[in-house]
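User: Could you walk me through two proteins back to back? I'd like the raw sequence and the C-alpha cells for each, with a short line separating them so I can tell where one ends and the next begins.

Assistant: Of course. Protein one, sequence then structure:
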Amino acid sequence: MIKNISNFELLDNTSLIFMTYKNVIMVTVFLITAVNSAFTQFYGLSNYYTVRHTIGDSYLDDVSFLNPSSYPSSYNMINVGVKPGRFGMSELNSLHAFAVISIDSTWSLGLNISGIGGELYNEFSPEIGIRWNVNENINIGASGEFNRVTVKNYNSYNIPTFNLGGIVKLTNELNAGMYIRNLLRNYSGDIDKTVYQEGSFGLSYSADEDLTINADAVVVINSFNSFNVGIKYDFDENFTSRLAVSTNPGVVNLGVLCKVSDAFSFVLSMDYDITLGITPEIALIYRI
C-alpha cells in the first residue's frame, strides 16, 4: 500500500531535518571546543598556535601569545593571521591580531585580539599584557583577558581571566619558563561552575644559532594534560621552518616563515588534528 504524504508532512520533515542539522553543528562546535586547546574559557579556539609552548622560542615569530613574559623588548611588532574554515567548517573561521610595543629595554605592552565563529557560534577575546625585564636573566609578565562566547538561541556568557608568566635564562643556550592562565580560577556561573585553570612549564634549548628546541608539560585542571615538543630551524636569514607535536589533543603543526624585507614577513602554517583533520593558516608579521 502506498501512503499519501501531504505538503504539511513534507514541510514538517524538512524542518526536522534542518533543525537536526543545526543541532549537529552545534554539538560539533562544542566537541571541538572541549577537545582542542584548553577549552574556550581561557583564550578561545582562535589561538594562533595549536601546539603551544611556554617560552615561544620555537615559534616562527619567537613570541608566546600565552606567556606575556615572552614579549620582545628590542622591537615593536604586529602579527595578523587568519585560519579559514578551521577543520573544514565555515562556522569556525578565525582571525587574530597581536601587537607589542616595546617601551624600553625594561617594559613592553601587548594587545592580542582573537575571534572565531559565525552565525551559530562566535567567540571574541581581547587580552592586554605587560612584560617586565627584572634583569638580564629574568622576565615577568601578566595579562588580563575578557572572553565572550555567543551561541545562537542560547545565552551569551563572559569570563574575565588573569594570567601570569615568567622566563629565566639559565645559560646562554637554555631557558626555562612557566605560565598560569586563569590564576583567579574564574568560571561561567550561567553554564558551568567547573574551574578550568592551565599551568605550563617548559624548556627551550638553542642547539646552535640555527636550531631551537622547545619541550613543555601542560596541565589543565578538570580537563587534560599534554606534552608538547617544537623544533625550529633557520635555513638562512630569510627562511625558517617549524615542526611541532602535541600529545593531547593529538596535533602536528608544520609551518614556514618567509622574510620579505627587514620589516615584513609572512607565515604559512598547517595543523593536522588526528580527529578533526587539517587547518591551514596564513599570517603577516610586521616588525619596527
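----
Protein two, same layout:
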Amino acid sequence: METQKNTYFALSDCSWEVISDSTYNQDGFWFHTLEIFERTRSYRIAAKCITKNKISVQAIFHDYDCKGLEESSKLSTEIFNSLKHLL
C-alpha cells in the first residue's frame, strides 16, 4: 500500500491527510489498512489488504463526496469486513 499512498501524495493539487496507516495480526489474519482524506475536496480513500496463509484480498474504497469521516468509515468498514469470508 506504500505505492498507492505515494501515488496519491504525488498529486500536486491535493493535500492529503493520513487518518490511519497500520499493519496488525488478528485471529490468524494479517491486515494492512490505509485511510487518507483530502479535506478541501471532501474526498476520502480507505484501503485494506487482508492476508491469510498465501492468499491476499485487497479493496480500495473511494468516497468522492465524503460528508463526514465517521459515516464514510462505517460504510467502508462494512465492505472491508466482508472480505475475510473470501479467504
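The chain has one domain: 2-86.

Let me know if you want the two compared in more detail.
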